[in-house]
């Protein structure tokens, strides 16, 4: 806070002299600092060959220095992760010293490639029912134990893999690990537990059509994944969930409980050598098996399309998707930045400038067969989509300003760092790259590769991938939707 007081004439003159002296000192200090900076960046005559060209303050570090720094960062990060196998089970342990929590995930490889249209949803039902109770921890005992410790045991089934996950405190890890392994290896599958879970899942599937957003995703999957393994919903349908029996779950559990089908990831302040013995005594005793993942066909859309489902709604729900690069592709890094730029631009143009929608967005998924896309809810479908497609076309023809690109990458990385704050998030990151991204070590290069993206990369991937968009619309009046706007060509 600046406080101004009335002072006498003599004091005022003394104060002014003091200020002038202070300013002079500051100028002298700045001049000295500037000279030192220039001297530090200069190369002495006759030493150019030894030292190379002068480094101008504010310019990027030389490629060799950048590569060395990047290698050091990657090596330091890699040193935190211990990778080993026990009887064919791949295990990743990341130590975070000082962390008071522990997260673990047991991942089943294959996802929807393990099922067909007749038993889709079996992994979702199996793991969800398993968390209801196990041989040594029936339902009531299990709930009392986890509630007392604040431990969480849950599951998730997705297109590419399913997961049984654990979250607990470091102090309660020993007991929580005992429960977690018993749930994974010896689920009870009591008929009443299975029926309870089945009923819950079926109700959630029935509710989908009551939610326009959820129903839009179902319709989008049907349009985008026709003829692809992803057409089999990993969460199942009302019909498949209703057919699955307790014996089906037990049989499928025996089938997937092979170390060649599984992967374990643990993150927390734990010693990997301590874990090896515990894993060997539990998951390490499973049969090895000879599971080999089948290749996943990439998605390819030959033409743009739009499918309209009429519903008595106050607005239109719209989503369009295009085939995107997988995590193993070099294009995934510029594609992430391009999608982030597009997301900001459609927000400005559709929401702020035209007030056509509250939350338009652009997105990029992390799937084995990957997609990106745009989403909007609006009463003026034609204008909103026209503006969004124009922004895609602008990305395809105009190079983004380098300063804007640097700012965009910095903003993206801020969100990335925040998303990686929890041990659970880091379990998912390691697993995603190990299962879909060519190995967990590739996650260590993520930041450096993102920073290396150029404006030319942005334009190239926009031209290559943001085309032949498959739109799905759920709304009140199909006659007002101009299909020519939705199917306009967005790239050469």
Q: Can you walk me through this structure?
A:
The chain has 492 residues and is of the alpha+beta class. The chain folds into two domains: 77-285, 2-Layer Sandwich (Cytochrome Bc1 Complex, Chain A, domain 1), CATH 3.30.830; 305-486, Metalloenzyme, LuxS/M16 peptidase-like (Cytochrome Bc1 Complex, Chain A, domain 1, 2-Layer Sandwich), CATH 3.30.830. The protein is 48% helix and 15% strand. The chain contains 18 helices and eleven strands. It has helices at residues 9-41, 48-51, 63-79, 122-130, 139-149, 173-185, 191-208, 212-224, 238-243, 246-256, 272-281, 332-353, 381-397, 402-419, 423-436, 446-451, 455-465, 483-486, and strands at residues 81-86, 89-95, 101-109, 152-157, 161-169, 262-268, 305-310, 316-323, 361-364, 371-378, 470-475. It has a six-stranded mixed sheet with strand order 1-2-6-3-5-4, with helices on both faces. Strands 7-11-8-10-9 form a five-stranded mixed sheet, sandwiched between helices. A hairpin with a 2-residue loop joins strand 1 and strand 2. Helix 12 (332-353) packs across helix 13 (381-397), helix 12 packs across helix 17 and helix 13 crosses helix 17. The longest helix has 33 residues, at 9-41. It starts with 8 loop residues before the first helix and ends in a 6-residue tail after the last helix. The relative contact order is 0.12. Mean pLDDT is 88; it is low at 1-62.
């Amino acid at each position: 806070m600046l406080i101004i007081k009335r002072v006498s004439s003599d004091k005022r003159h003394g104060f002014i002299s003091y200020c002038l002296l202070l300013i002079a000192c500051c100028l002298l200090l700045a001049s000295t600092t500037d000279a030192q900076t220039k001297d530090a960046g200069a190369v002495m005559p006759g030493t150019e060959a030894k030292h190379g060209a002068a480094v101008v303050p504010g310019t990027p570090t030389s490629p060799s220095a950048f590569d060395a720094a990047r290698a050091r960062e990657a090596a330091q990060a890699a040193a935190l992760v211990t990778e080993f196998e026990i009887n064919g089970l791949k295990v990743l342990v990341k130590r975070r010293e000082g962390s008071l929590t522990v997260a673990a995930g047991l991942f089943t490889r294959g996802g929807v490639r393990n099922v067909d249209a007749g038993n889709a949803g079996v992994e979702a039902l199996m793991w969800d029912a398993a968390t209801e109770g196990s041989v040594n921890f029936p339902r009531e005992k299990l709930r009392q134990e986890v509630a007392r410790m604040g431990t969480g045991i849950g599951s998730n089934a997705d297109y590419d893999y399913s997961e049984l996950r654990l979250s607990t405190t470091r102090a309660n890890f020993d007991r929580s690990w005992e429960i977690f392994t018993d749930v994974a290896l010896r689920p009870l599958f009591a008929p009443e537990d299975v029926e309870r879970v089945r009923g819950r899942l079926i109700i959630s599937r029935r509710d989908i059509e009551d939610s326009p957003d959820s129903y839009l995703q179902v319709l989008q999957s049907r349009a985008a994944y026709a003829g692809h393994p992803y057409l089999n919903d990993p969460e199942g349908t009302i019909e498949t969930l209703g057919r699955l029996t307790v014996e089906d779950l037990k049989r499928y559990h025996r089938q997937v409980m092979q170390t060649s089908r599984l992967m374990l990831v643990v993150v927390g302040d734990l010693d990997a050598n301590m874990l090896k013995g515990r894993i060997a005594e539990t998951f390490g005793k499973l049969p090895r098996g000879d599971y080999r993942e089948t290749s996943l066909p990439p998605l390819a859309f030959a033409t743009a399309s739009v499918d309209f489902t009429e519903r008595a709604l106050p607005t239109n729900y719209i989503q369009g998707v295009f085939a995107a690069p997988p995590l193993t592709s070099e294009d995934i890094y510029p594609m992430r930045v391009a999608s982030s730029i597009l997301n900001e631009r459609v927000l400005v143009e559709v929401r702020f400038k035209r007030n056509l929608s509250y939350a338009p967005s652009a997105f990029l998924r992390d799937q084995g067969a990957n997609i990106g896309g745009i989403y909007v809810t609006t009463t003026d479908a034609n204008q909103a989509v026209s503006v969004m497609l124009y922004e895609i076309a602008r990305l395809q023809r105009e190079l983004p300003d380098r300063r804007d690109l640097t700012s965009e990458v910095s903003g993206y990385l801020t969100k990335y760092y925040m998303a990686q704050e929890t041990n659970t998030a880091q379990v998912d990151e390691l697993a995603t790259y190990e299962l879909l991204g060519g190995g967990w070590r590739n996650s260590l290069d993520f930041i450096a590769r993102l920073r290396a993206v150029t404006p030319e990369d942005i334009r190239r991937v926009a031209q290559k991938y943001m085309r032949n968009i498959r739109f799905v619309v759920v709304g009140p009046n199909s006659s007002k939707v101009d299909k020519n706007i939705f199917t306009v060509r967005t790239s050469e």
